[in-house]
Every structure is written in structure tokens, then in C-alpha cells.
Amino acid sequence: MPPVMRLRDLLLVLVVLASIGVGVFELGRHVDTESTTLSKQDSALNQQVYTPTHHSGPSRRVIELGAGAVGGTAGLIVLFSIGSALARPRRRKATWRAG
């Protein structure tokens, strides 16, 4: 497979991943806006929230850092996999033919 084909395939994959990312972002933004709008209309949500005096378990920041680390590691694995596949030379197997 010529390098141009591999580069085109890589660009297509990047376009698809970018479009999925933009779609997920827009969907999340829409859900957040709708949730905020609906919560302003609900009187039960405007009450004082109970917060325990002793916090147990990991903080939100620790959970976010852990999720980011797992996601970043997965992303690096995918990038290294794609890079090694693109860098590897493609050779045809020599087939023996009776002559």
C-alpha cells in the first residue's frame, strides 16, 4: 500500500474521531443547558443541600485525575499503535510459482 493511501486513511480516521468528539461535546452542552433550565423551575432543587461533616472516599479531583490518566494512557497506546503501523514497511510475500 503506498504511503499516500495510508496518510489518507489516517486523515479519514482523524476526521471521524474529530466529528465524534464535536458531536459528544455539543450533546453534553445541550444536556447541561437543558438541565440548568429545568432545575431553575423546580422548587425542590432550590433547598439547602445536606453536606456531611466528615468526607469519606476520594475527592472529585482525584477521580478526575484517575480518569484522565486512564484516558491518556489509552490514547497513547492508540497513537503508538497507529505510528508503528504507518512506520512499518509493507512488503509483499514472495510466492513460489511452478515455472
Question: Briefly, what is this?
Answer:
By secondary structure, the protein is mainly alpha-helical.
Characterise this structure.
By secondary structure, this protein is mainly alpha-helical. The protein has two helices and no strands. The longest helix has 39 residues, at 3-41. It is elongated.
Task: List strands and helices in order, with pairings.
Layout lengths: L2 H39 L18 H28 L12
Write down the secondary-structure element order: HH
Query: Which consecutive residue ranges, at least 5 long each, have pLDDT under 50?
Result: none
Q: How many strands in all?
A: 0
How far apart are the termini? 27 Å
Rg: 25 Å
Percentage of helical residues?
55-70%
Shape: elongated
- Largest sheet entry: none
Mean pLDDT: 80
Strand content: under 5%
Helices, by number, come to 2
Coarse structural class: mainly alpha
